[in-house]
Design a protein that fits this description.
- It is an enzyme of class 2 (transferase).
- The protein is an alpha/beta fold and 251 residues long.
- 27% of the residues lie in helices and 19% in strands.
- It contains 7 helices and 10 strands.
- The strands form 2 sheets. Strands 3-2-4-1-5 form a 5-stranded parallel beta sheet, sandwiched between helices. It has a 5-stranded mixed beta sheet with strand order 6-7-10-8-9, with helices on both faces.
- Helix 2 crosses helix 3 and helix 6 (170-181) packs antiparallel against helix 7.
- The termini are far apart.
Length: 251
């Protein structure tokens, strides 16, 4: 058997990858976070599949479910919202599977920041304006941030910052980034990206926190701050430039 850590995407059920959907349809056991993974995806599970909502389970209980499936010889679809590579708590699960000798694979998914950029109709990297995207969060009740990864330090780069798990603390985000980005810096918040109840807020660093409060957004959202969000004057990329020598390119 194999445990498949599958990125279920940001919310819309049809944003799961073809590979992820195929494995989900073939796995007789499915573990999913009921508070984050769209329930429509569960319809893809095979008839009679064991469905386990992990929203209220701790890591040891989740591991026990995976071990049970392993003992029964059943593949497991372990659905995670977004993509498993960021803010997914996959590491601690893989560590325990390694210790137990249980095989697993990772199937990437569409991350929340990509769905948010799509909702904003923005490319996050713009020639001559910004070529760096920082994915981060802030310290609050969860795990503390490592030294040097606070917003005051990261903000000195001037790069586009994408904050997960921070909508509830929008005022704090603004306070820490204002000295580095300025009050007029473009900012946006996308909540429930790709879902029917998606909320898109656009503004500047000095206005976005008020919009977040007015909209009642406190979770399932990303905050974006950076000049590329409002870039209108920029040089075209070299990729499709008429002046580019394409003689050495393949057919």
């Amino acid at each position: 058997m194999t445990v498949y850590f599958i990125g279920a995407g940001p919310g819309a059920a049809d944003l799961i990858t073809v590979r992820g959907a195929r494995l989900l349809a073939a796995s007789p056991v499915c573990l999913y976070a009921g508070s984050l993974v769209p329930v429509e995806l569960l319809a893809e599970c095979p008839e009679g599949a064991r469905l386990v909502d992990t929203a209220n389970l701790d890591i040891e209980q989740i591991t026990a479910e995976l071990a049970r499936a392993h003992a029964d010889g059943h593949d497991v679809a372990r659905l995670h919202s977004g993509d498993p590579s960021v803010f997914s708590a996959v590491n601690e699960q893989m560590k325990r599977l390694d210790e137990a000798g249980i095989p697993y694979e990772i199937v990437p998914g569409v991350p929340a920041f990509a769905a948010a950029a799509a909702a904003l109709k923005r490319e996050l990297t713009v020639p001559t304006v910004g070529q760096t995207v920082i994915l981060t969060r802030i310290a609050q009740r969860a795990t503390a941030m490592p030294p040097g990864e606070d917003l005051a330090t990261l903000g000195r780069s001037g790069a586009l910052i994408v904050l997960h798990l921070a909508a509830r603390y929008a005022d704090r985000v603004v306070e820490e980034l204002l000295p580095h980005y300025g009050a007029d810096c473009p900012a946006a918040v996308v909540a429930m990206a790709s879902r029917p109840d998606e909320i898109v807020l656009r503004g500047t660093l000095d206005s976005i926190a008020g919009q977040v409060k007015a909209a009642g957004v406190i979770r399932t959202a990303v905050i974006m701050v950076g000049r590329t969000l409002g870039a209108e004057q920029f040089r075209d990329s070299h990729l499709y430039s008429p002046g580019r020598d394409r003689g050495s390119c393949g057919s």
